[in-house]
Inverse folding.
């Protein structure tokens, strides 16, 4: 714990990690209960044949988006909030810090409440224990995030293989109970959903996380490792979560792997899966909040920001506000992907694939072209009836490319900040 994971600077080559470490941390992030619930909605609406290719296509698009940002993160050593200084400006980047940070603290509150409620329900403990458990888990899950990348690496190296084994046991048991693919093919959908809407659900499950996965892909030793690890997490890992939720709903009318394992008689495994599934996402989530908070406040005290974020999330959980936050958090998920589009366009078109050193870069307070492109992308995503996350990315990137060619006084960058950070 001799450093704080470089919250305001590039990750040096001496701190870079290999494929196993990077993949473990990212897979731990994408093994998320809410993703299985999203998969459950698909399991009610499609036959097994349609379901498989929709999951394949949706997660391929999600993985490609996240992997593109991972490549930039590894090349530059920067995460998304630090890249935001280049495409939004020193002060303009605080907009992205707030949106990204608020989203993550909301999901942290949701996860903290979820594990307490589910654990009480699963084990038969008295209901009055829910609040003490929320406090315990709210602060307990942030410990590995406080340690930093190394702490999350240690946890993920144990948790990811264990969760993978539990999921495979459950899927095999489910296929036996359903009489294999022949039995699954006989099940008819009970709900209706268009293919475009289904792909939107899949992409929307974790595109916000994909935008912030640069917090770990920037630690990769090479761009190749960053891309492979990110695809493993967002194509394979997230795809497995969606498939697990869909099959659980088709066979047992339960999307959550914990409920499915209990229905299959694996109570002990279900409790272990609950802990590992929530913990490996919670520590990543609060780490994301801390990184965004450090950039917002321009402080190196990442561990202090981590504990502060855990406290806020715990208060939201105990106060019951986590249920009220979910629709708002999903809405914010629409506004996050366009940031990735602006970052991509800024990196390749304006900076020609190489950022200058952040410490010596002369950055404006507000990059008006970047902010305008983001606003256009966010607006397009909000009003688009078809694949809003992808529309937001494409419109934001395309708008930035066009605005770079427009020489107009109102689009010029504001004066550079006089204070160096």
């Amino acid at each position: 714990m001799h450093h704080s994971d470089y919250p305001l600077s590039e990750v040096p080559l001496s701190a870079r990690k290999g494929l196993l470490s990077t993949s473990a941390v990212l897979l731990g992030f994408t093994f998320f209960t809410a993703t299985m619930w999203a998969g459950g909605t698909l399991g009610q609406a499609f036959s097994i044949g349609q379901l498989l290719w929709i999951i394949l296509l949706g997660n391929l698009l999600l993985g490609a988006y996240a992997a593109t940002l991972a490549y930039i993160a590894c090349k530059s050593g920067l995460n998304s909030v630090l890249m935001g200084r280049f495409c939004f400006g020193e002060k303009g980047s605080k907009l992205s810090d707030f949106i990204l940070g608020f989203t993550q603290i909301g999901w942290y509150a949701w996860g903290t409440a979820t594990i307490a409620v589910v654990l009480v329900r699963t084990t038969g403990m008295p209901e009055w224990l829910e609040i003490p458990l929320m406090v315990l888990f709210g602060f307990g899950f942030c410990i590995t995030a406080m340690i930093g990348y190394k702490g999350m690496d240690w946890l993920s190296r144990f948790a990811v293989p264990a969760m993978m084994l539990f999921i495979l046991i459950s899927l095999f048991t489910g296929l036996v109970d359903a009489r294999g693919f022949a039995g699954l093919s006989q099940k008819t959908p009970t709900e209706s959903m268009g293919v475009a809407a289904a792909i939107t659900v899949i992409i929307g499950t974790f595109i916000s996380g994909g935008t912030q996965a640069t917090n770990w892909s920037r630690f990769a030793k090479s761009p190749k490792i960053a891309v492979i690890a990110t695809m493993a997490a967002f194509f394979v890992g997230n795809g497995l979560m969606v498939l697990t939720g869909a099959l659980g709903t088709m066979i047992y009318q339960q999307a959550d792997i914990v409920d499915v394992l209990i229905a299959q008689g694996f109570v002990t495994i279900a409790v272990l899966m609950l802990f590992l599934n929530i913990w490996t996402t919670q520590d990543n989530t609060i780490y994301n909040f801390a990184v965004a908070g450090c950039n917002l406040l321009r402080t190196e005290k990442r561990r202090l920001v981590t504990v502060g974020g855990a406290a806020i999330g715990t208060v939201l959980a105990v106060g019951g506000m986590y249920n009220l936050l979910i629709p708002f958090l999903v809405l914010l998920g629409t506004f996050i992907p366009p940031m990735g589009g602006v970052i991509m366009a800024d990196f390749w078109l304006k900076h020609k694939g190489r950022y200058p050193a952040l410490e010596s870069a002369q950055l404006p307070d507000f990059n008006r072209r970047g902010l305008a492109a983001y606003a256009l992308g966010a607006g397009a995503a909000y009003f688009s009836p078809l694949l809003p996350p992808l529309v937001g990315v494409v419109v934001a990137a395309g708008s930035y490319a066009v605005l770079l060619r427009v020489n107009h006084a109102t689009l010029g960058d504001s004066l550079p900040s006089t204070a160096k950070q």
Observations:
- The CA atoms of residues 16 and 221 lie 5 Å apart.
